[in-house]
Amino acid sequence: MLLIVPKNVDLQGDWWNQSYDKLPKEEEEALWAAFGRRAYNKASGKEVVNSYQSEDSGKWFICKCRGEIANPPVITLRSFKHIVRKSGSGEHSSDCDFYPITTPQREIVRSYRQKQRNTAFNFLASFDRSETDDQTNAGTGRASHHTSRSKLGTLLAEWISKTPIGWREAGTPRLSISPQYEELKASASEIWLDTNVTLSDSLCAFDSDLDQFKEDIFSAPANWSRRRREHGIYLTRVGGVGRQKIETLDGRVHDVVGRLAIFGETDGSDRAETISNLSARQPYLAVILVGRRSPDAPATLLSAYLHPCVDRGDLLLVDSDLERITLRYLQDIQDSLPPNDSFDIQKPMFDLDAPLPRRPIKLTPEEQEQLDTRDVLVPDFVLWPTSKSRTPLVVETMGYDKADYRQRKRRTQEKMRQKLNAELECHDFHQPYGTSQEDRDEDFINRVRAHFTAETDR
Ligand SMILES: [Zn+2]
User: Fold this and answer.
1) What are 333-345's pLDDT values in tens digits?
2) 92 C-alpha to ligand 1 centroid (Å)
3) How far does residue 429's CA lie from ligand 1's centre (Å)?
4) Residue 197 buriedness (CB in 10 A; 0-12 / 13-18 / 19+)
5) Deepest of 82, 328, 402, 423, by most Cβ within 10 A of its Cβ?
6) Cα gap 124→301, rounded to integer Å
């Protein structure tokens, strides 16, 4: 949200207690369209800039993306046609549309596509190849739908999507933990790490096997091509996270020497998340790359990707703790309906709008531009009716109350709805105001039930 303020306003003072006007929504959207991170219509912002720069002696805009803090990000107007962040003013939140991102949106969007069938993940190039990979750079960081998905993240998404774990069929009992592991191990043979090496050829799925696994990678190597260095994937459930450390559910602590990325939904503010905050979302399902950093070094845990799962007995991936609650309600509703008038629950893993992983289609420059600047569309849940006379339902968990978050969600939800020809229900944890969460939950449950039980005229 942008506030219209006079030039040279006191930014250290309590600007948030002054009664400044908000920039009308249409005008803010015109500025996004022209100058935001997903800019697609350069011309649209000019008129807005022009009118506010002409007014009195000109205006500034305070961006509220970081809330009510001293030294907020301030937008100033230039040459009657473009905007800049006032030098010395605060940075925009990393989820704000005015935050300058170094990864272009098209790269983010592309990372949420499914891989081409049967192409190999290129995790570790052989030592004699000059190309470097970023798998071994240290760092513990947060991943979200607003950042590009790492290769390990894509591997986990591909892998889960080949199993029934992310697809809860109506009237089917839920799998306990060992059949879920069996499903994962079975589909590992369809994922390629190299031309002749599948994930199942180089996989460790049991914590107690890890030491042997590290040795086996080199003493009994799979049939790696010369382009790649021997490596493997360690799959485990993680209960705790520290700086460059993970703790498995059975209490083993491992160092991760390179990048440790943890998926977490963000509220649009840039609050640095503490490790203890991240641990609060445990348990996680983790995929960890195991290999050597140099030709004579022993195998280590090179990099890891962690995504929260429902609980220690359920490997379905969720984006937040609140999604766990939404899922629980959805499963209760699913169980309470007769199977032929119920629904399957899907937890989508990929961008809805991504082209199917077939041969690339030739796009016009305009089509390419459109594809490159749009949002990633990954619904929280999709409910697929078992009865053909009903429409699918997109279910979204509204976990935060911030205006930026809600604006972004509204924008993507409408696109998802249209794309799937579906209806939309939100499980809201903040609105409407003045009601208890119990009442909001009950309303949500009733609306979802009604969608699948109301009389249809078809
Ligand atoms: Zn901002």
Assistant:
1) 999 999 889 999 9
2) 4
3) 24
4) buried
5) 402
6) 13
Distance 85 CA to ligand 1 centre (A): 9
| pLDDT tens digits for range 232-281 | 999 999 998 888 899 999 999 999 998 888 887 665 444 445 555 555 68
Rg (CA), the chain: 24
Q: Among residues 257, 258, 304, which one has the least CA distance to residue 278?
A: 304
Q: How confident is the model at residue 369 (pLDDT cuts 50, 70, 90)?
A: low
CA-closest candidate to residue 427, choices 344, 323, 345:
323
139-143 and 259-263 as β-strands: parallel, antiparallel, unpaired? parallel
pLDDT at 111: 82
| Cβ atoms of residues 243 and 275 within 8 Å | yes
Burial of 304 (0-12, 13-18, 19+ CB in 10 A): buried
List, as one string, the DSSP characters of 167-225: EE-TT-PPP-HHHHHHHHHHHGGGSEEETTEEGGGGEE--GGGHHHHHHHHHHS-----
Model's pTM, two decimal places?
Answer: 0.78
Quote the CA–CA distance of 34 and 156 in Å, as a whole number. Answer: 36
For 128, which DSSP code? T
pLDDT in tens, 290-346: 999 888 889 999 999 999 999 999 999 998 889 999 999 999 999 999 988 999 999
Question: How many whole angstroms from 74 Cα to the centroid of ligand 1?
Answer: 8
The residues facing 203 across adjacent strands are 233
**98: CA distance to ligand 1 center in Å?**
5
Q: Which residue has the tokens 């996270």?
A: 241
The Cα 37–Cα 194 span in angstroms is 35
Rounded CA-CA distance 274/254 in Å is: 19
